[in-house]
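Reviewers of the previous submission asked for a worked example of the structure-prediction workflow described in the proposal, so we include one complete record here. The input consisted solely of the amino acid sequence. No template or homolog information was supplied to the procedure at any stage.
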Amino acid sequence: MPEEVSVDADEQEGSLAKNVDFGAWVASRGPALQRFAYLVTGNNSDAPDLVQDALARALPRWESLAASGTAEAYVKRSIVNGSISGWRKRRRLVLVEDVEPMATSHEPGPEERDADEAWELVQTLPSNQRAAVVLRFYEDLSFAQIATVLDCAEATARSHVHRALAKLRQRLNEQGSVDQRGNEGVDNE
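From that input alone, the workflow returned the following structure tokens.
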């Protein structure tokens, strides 16, 4: 009997070590995963839930994910999948506008207005294109890495980014913010 107890204690210690490694990884990557989830969903209230669900799915597989070095790709793909699933569930719902933020005395500068305008345009993209743009320009991933996260071919990842940028340019042209060559505020005279 005492030998069985020591085996159980060893198993508990191994499980604890696995959880500590997972906890340390979550502590170091958690804020970046939250930002990624926000950028993919465009919603502050959904982002933490998506991260939590993705991490809950990763924990049982942690040893193999950590050993293969695919933990971050797995969690990011889970976040993207969760966002798409949520979008599919909610697409029939009519959303009400968000509560207006409290007025502040701070007047946003041109950089902040440009960033806000860019983010509003990115939010109009389909979810796979939005995820590809966020991965490419916010996370600074290569097309091969984007393909891994989105679970698609590298050519498809390139296509998502290319089509997203084409749509963004088109919408900017419609707004009159950019000329045909992509130059801001230049007259074509």
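Helices lie at 2-41, 46-58, 62-68, 71-90, 110-123, 127-138, 143-150, 154-175. We consider this example representative of the routine output the project will generate in years two and three.
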